[in-house]
Amino acid sequence: GQTIGIIGGGQLGRMMALAAKAQGFRVAVLDPVEDSPCGQVADIKVIGAYDSMDAIKQLAEASDVITYEFENISAESLNWLCENAYVPQGSSVLSITQDRVSEKEAIVKAGAAVAPYSVIQSAEDIYDNIETLGFPSVLKTARGGYDGKGQFVIRNQNDIEEAKALLVHGTCVLEQFISFSKEISVIIFRNPNGETAVLPVGENIHQENILHQTIVPARISTQAEEKALEAAKQIAEAFGLVGTLAVEMFLGQDDEIYINELAPRPHNSGHYSIEACETSQFEQHVRAVCNWPLGSTELLKPAIMVNILGEHVAPLLEEIPSLADWKVHLYGKTEAKTKRKMGHVTLLHSNVEDALAEIEKSDIWAKAQEKIGG
Ligand code: ATP
Ligand code: MG
Ligand code: MG
């Protein structure tokens, strides 16, 4: 059979690999960690290290087609793979989205809106731009941040002193803080034939900058939903997307859309699709990359996805005997560190409000709070 090579063996790689195996592919994975979420799945060939040229060459040799879940692969490695192996997604979308500056420029060029921002190289740049942007504003490193790491909310003049420490990581962007009514995301897929599909819009609730819940269908107006889907399509077309693009958005008070950021891969806010959609984001990603016709993304039932962080694992395991309807996913990570994404649960329910009430009733979140002394 054909072998799919995946760069990155974390939870996204694991769920991608499981989908690919179900579709009849063999899987090879590049990951420096031996005990990664992928490393625990039977019959996956795991190759160590992301960026040693040796490992990259091994992946190329083992694979008929190569994709990625890890976003911070070096341009050099990816370019080598593009020239010496079959990488249908190419390197341009990944390199655009690796940097918030090029990402924002490309979004605007595609005709979608972003929060007002300035590119920041020095403390002086912050002082020069903060007045126009106003308080609060968010300073973010241009590269490498995730789960709110690499950003700082500047609420007043005094915060600038502390925020400027981020500049040691290089170029930053200063963004106006949007007082959004909702955070939503659209996950869009496109195959080399130019066929596209989108998952239903997800409503995302973050806690301390980490995704906590995704609620589908999103509780937004039809107008907002149409605008969100349209913005994602515009960006995917402008990028000549192949594969998957997750588009994180803020919905303003009057249903205006600001694109927050992009991820060129399956996304945490699409995990609900494993049970709730006719085709999951992981199956669809494999279909798109392999230029198969895309499957229906129809929502079979309303769904709530809740992330399981390190502090939630023990209380979840205690409660499982009373949770017949919760679909439990644990990624096989051994160290349950606080705030680390360890798994997720999905609850399907004919009524989103009832499902939220059921989650609210469970002791998991309160017990976790006690545990970390919050
Ligand atoms: P990840 O990649 O894990 O989604 P990240 O570290 O790249 O996270 P962002 O998505 O930029 O971070 O921001 C994390 C969260 O912080 C957002 O989902 C939102 O809740 C809040 N946030 C970020 N920027 C803004 C903004 N300009 N206005 C309002 N809220 C913001
Ligand atoms: Mg991000
Ligand atoms: Mg984000």
Structural overview:
By secondary structure, the protein is of the alpha+beta class. The chain has three domains: 3-87, Rossmann fold (3-Layer(aba) Sandwich); 116-176, ATP-grasp fold, A domain (Dna Ligase, domain 1), CATH 3.30.1490; 182-371, D-amino Acid Aminotransferase, Chain A, domain 1 (2-Layer Sandwich), CATH 3.30.470.20. Helices cover 32% and strands 26% of the residues. The chain contains 13 helices and 17 strands. It has helices at residues 11-22, 53-62, 75-84, 92-97, 100-109, 123-133, 159-163, 222-239, 273-276, 281-289, 313-319, 352-361, 364-371; strands spanning 3-7, 26-30, 44-47, 65-68, 117-120, 137-141, 151-154, 172-176, 182-190, 196-198, 202-207, 210-216, 243-251, 257-263, 303-309, 326-330, 341-348. Strands 9, 10, 11, 12, 13, 14, 15, 16 and 17 form a nine-stranded antiparallel sheet that branches. It has a four-stranded parallel sheet with strand order 3-2-1-4. A four-stranded antiparallel sheet has the order 5-8-6-7. Helix 1 (11-22) crosses helix 10 (281-289) and helix 11 (313-319) runs antiparallel to helix 13 (364-371). The chain is globular. The termini are far apart. Bound molecules: adenosine-5'-triphosphate and magnesium ion (2 copies).
